[in-house]
Design goal:
homodimer, mainly alpha, Tetracycline Repressor, domain 2, 2 domains, 74% helix, DNA-binding
Chain lengths: 206, 206
DNA sequence: TTTATTTACTAAACACTGTTCATTAAATTT
DNA sequence: AAATTTAATGAACAGTGTTTAGTAAATAAA
């Protein structure tokens, strides 16, 4: 029975077509213009068809947000090449913030928008945010290495990791949601972020 | 000509009625259900009437977000009673995060939603975010006092203030947008936030 | 007081949104 | 060749922010 296999394959291909098209629309046109109808238009299918492959918009956006995490984790990949743990730590923060600046819409979807978390809630009772947790684990590992070598003033891994994440996320969030540019001092956000990051590392350093 | 004065008064009263009703809907029903039609229903006027008093929804939400800042700044008011600068510093952070936890929808509107910043942009070229800047100034003052007494390791006021703000905002943001509760470890968010805040202050301390 | 004008308000429409469902047409199985 | 399963859609529903032409009341002018 090759027909069932072919049909299954075609179904997956259609799912992928929808996802990739949705990702494209999302990146090119932004969150707001990423409507079911816009995506449907691009693939030349009716809006209702999308609902045969994704339960609702939140589920589709969840799939897009996972692609975002692929890219973020990829940018973390080469961190192991950095020998100095403290420099590796700083670079992690830097790349995180840089990702947010370079891919604001995607960062927004991954870390700010309600949508993917709604999808998670609707999926099953007590389902976990795997890709988010995976990124958090990268941060934990690097902090642990710094702690092991006695480079930090803190000793609580979890609290330190959450603090660092909050810090870089806060920076990213304020920037993306236009809370910095509305200030009287018109400052170089990029430079200011680097300075803040330096301050954080310096403060945590022993 | 008392008629013109009465008309002007009535106009202001109507504006206030719309604003207060909008605030009520916003707090009681949340951001999502705060539609022009919902507000119009409550005051028993047609939706179009609201547009005679507020240019668009962003402008109305901006007015609501200003009410939020009134409340936030009010919670900062009694900080001067705290003699110890470092403790005052910690309390500021604590009250900020507490405000976010207790008034998630309002915090969201004030610091996360695009809406009020859109209103600001549409208003005039180069108009500033006064209420946001005022809160930031409170933070700056307290940090300055700590610096003056040589209590901090840092010396750049602006960068330190932005870092602290990013930190507490990041915490608030992750919490409100459900990025913490999706983690395997089901932790007491409140307690974790307090610990993180302590870590920040300790790290900045000389 | 009657006429003219300004003011306040609204019904209805426009262009969107996510989502559902009965119906149709094609592919597959019997 | 007939019956059944599958895939796709048109059309609708209920909602959104916003605009505009038209109405009725209040005010000003004659």
């Amino acid at each position: 029975m090759g027909i069932q296999e072919r049909k299954e394959r075609e179904k997956q291909e259609m799912r992928e077509l929808i996802l990739q098209t949705a990702r494209q629309v999302f990146i090119e046109e932004g969150y707001e213009k990423t409507s079911i109808r816009t995506i449907a238009d691009r693939i030349e299918y009716s809006p209702a068809t999308i609902y045969l492959y994704y339960k609702d918009k939140d589920q589709l956006l969840f799939a897009i947000h996972e692609l975002g995490f692929d890219a973020l984790l990829a940018s973390f990949q080469t961190l192991q090449e950095i020998a100095d743990p403290l420099e590796r730590f700083r670079q992690l923060g830097h790349r995180y913030v840089q990702f947010a600046i370079n891919n604001p819409e995607m960062y927004d979807l991954m870390f700010i928008s309600y949508s993917p978390m709604n999808a998670l809630e609707k999926a099953q009772e007590g389902s976990t945010w795997d890709c988010g947790y995976q990124s958090f684990h990268t941060l934990c590992s690097i902090i642990q290495e710094n702690m092991d070598q006695g480079l930090l003033r803190t000793n609580d891994l979890y609290v330190t990791a959450l603090s660092v994440w909050s810090f870089v996320h806060g920076l990213a969030c304020l920037h993306i949601r236009n809370r910095l540019k509305a200030f009287p001092e018109h400052l170089n956000t990029q430079q200011l972020m680097d300075q803040s990051l330096d301050l954080l590392i310096t403060s945590l350093k022993v």
